[in-house]
Amino acid sequence: MERGIETEVNKRNSAKKTQNFYGNGKLLISGEYFVLDGAVALALPTIFGQKLMVSHKPSFNPTLTWKSYDEKGKIWFESEYEFWHFRCLRENPSSKAIRLQELLLEVRKENSHFLRENVDVEVTTKTNFPLDWGLGSSSTHIFNIAQWAYVNPFKLLFETTGGSGYDIACAQAEGPIFYQLKGKMPSWSLVDFNPSFKENLYFVYLGTKKDSAQAVKDYREKGSASKDTINVINALTKAMAVADDLHDFEELLVEHEDFVSSYMGLEPIKKTTFPDFWGSIKSLGAWGGDFALVTSEESPTATKEYFKRKLGHDVIFSYRDIILERSPLLSKEPVGISINREEFLQ
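User: That's the sequence. What structure does it adopt?
Assistant: C-alpha cells below.
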C-alpha cells in the first residue's frame, strides 16, 4: 500500500473513537444467472440493510471483539481474535468464526496495515431484517468491512464468497441500478426506474432459503451463455426499466421467466406454486428461494390475503415499503415496519 493510503487509513482510525458504516440490502429484478456472464441486470437496493460500528481503545495486547445482532436485538454471532493472524481466541470456533477469520485475512492481503495498531477493537453489526430473508446479510457484511478497512469491496467479494457483485453495487447505491460485468470488471449506474404502476407491485417472501453457491454451480455446468442469450436478457432488462404500462411490464416478466425456465430446465414458480394467482409472478435471484416480484390489480388486502393463505405468513411488501428510492439517510419510515430507520442509522 502506498504511503499516502497508509496515512489516510491511520488518520481515519485515529480521528474517531467510533466509526459507523452502512450497506443497503438488495433485490435482483432481472438478469439472474446471466449477470455472471456479462448480461445487464436491473437491481434495486432496499430500505433494509446492515450497519457496522467500530470502537477503539488503547491496549498492550490488542484484541478484536466481534458481536452481531439480528433485527430483534439478539446476538446471533460473537467471537474474539488476536490481530496478527486473526487466530480465534475462543475454543472450538464455529464455522461462522472461521469464515470471518478467512475474510479478515483476505482484507489483510489487500491492506497490510489493517489492524496493526496497539488498540483493542470492538465491532458490532446490526441488521434491521431477518437474516433468512436473503436481502444481503453477507454482501452488506463484506461491503461494510471493506469500507472500514479501506479496500475494494468488489475484489473482497470476488476473492472470498464470489458472485457477480451486483449486491455490492446495491449496498452503496442511492436507487435502482443497471449492473454489468464487463470483462470481469463491475460496472453499474443509476437508472430512472420509476414505474407509474408501483402500487401494483409487491415483493413476497417465499419462506425458502436458496443455496446461491449451488445455484451458481448449476448454471456454470451449462457453460457460458452465448452472445445471443445475453442479448435477449439485455433487451428484456432494458425494456422492463422503461415500461410505463403495467400490462406491458407483466408481459416482460413472463417472457423473462419463460426464457430462464427453458435455459435452466426449471419450472416458473407461478406454475408450480401459485397457478391460480391472477397477476404475474417472477422469481428474484436464484430460483426457488427468498423473494418473488408480484403484480396485482386487486386490492392490497386481497393480494396479501392470497399469499398469506398460500404461504402461511404475511411477509409481503408493497414497492414503497421495501425499495430504496433515494439516499438511506433521507428515506421515509416504511409503512407497517416497526423499525425507526433514523435511529437505526445513528
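The first strand starts at residue 18 and ends at 28.
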